[in-house]
Amino acid sequence: MMTYDSLRLAVRGGTAGSVMSFVLEEIADGRTTIAAVAHPLGFVCLPLRREGERGVCVHAWRDDVPQVAPTTSFIHAHSWDLFSYVLYGAIRNNVIEITDTVTDPTHRVAEIRSTGPIDEIRPTGRLVRSATVATELTSRSAVYTLDGGIFHTSVVDGHAATLAFSSACPGAIDLSLADLDMQPHSVRRRYCDRVETAHIAREVLTRLRAGGTRGPIRPPEAGGHRRL
User: Which of 5, 208, 214, 226 has the CA that lies 20 to 30 A from 64?
Assistant: First the structure.
């Protein structure tokens, strides 16, 4: 399996599609121990590599699979910086600005702490309003970035997949906007079995090859999305 750094180099060198074609073929043929995970934000994750505070995954959105809404909302902020290369399809990221208020708030900020497949979701005392302040559509062979701490939503119409690189922000916590009366609870993420994982990898591989496996990288806009 490729390393975090070698996969980043493949993106920079314009060979990420070809490299991922090989990696997905291995997964589809059952030659790895990778198990796909159904993410509560509506995509399937193939975790390729974890190296300390860094990780790389394939995220795949599929319109033939019913989307399961999270128990909070789709507005969330990572505890890590994201560098994401679009393998096929298009991703629309909406950047959300939140304003602390005790007068007619719309949401309560919730903390999400994950241990293995379990997400522990706890409301905080922080009440806020939210507003979309930027939107960006990123399509095949292009990169988008999101710094940790930025509230956002990621929207896909149809099928799409990304090669997502994460780098943890020291001391940061995953956050989401929730209903004002949300109660503490936990959610168990569903791991797919070998047959389902192989099917997902084969589907991503087929769509990747149908769209071409090589193309020049198109960088994000200068600076990417920064903390608000």
Answer: 214
Q: Tell me the pTM.
A: 0.89
In this structure, which amino acid lies at residue 118?
I
Domains in the chain, CATH or no CATH each: 4-210 (2.60.120.10)
Alpha-carbon distance 215 to 192, whole Å? 31
Taking the C-alpha atoms of residue 76 and residue 74, their distance in angstroms, rounded to an integer, is 6
Residue 50's nearest CA partner among 70, 75, 33 is: 33
pLDDT in tens, the chain (228 residues): 689 999 999 999 999 999 999 999 999 999 999 999 998 888 999 999 999 999 999 999 987 655 567 899 999 999 999 999 999 999 999 999 999 999 999 999 999 999 988 999 999 999 999 999 999 999 999 999 999 999 999 999 889 999 999 999 999 999 999 999 999 999 998 899 999 999 999 999 999 999 744 443 344 443 344 333
| H runs (alpha helix) in the chain | 4-13, 16-28, 194-210
Spatial neighbors of 69 by CB under 8 A, at least 6 apart, are 42
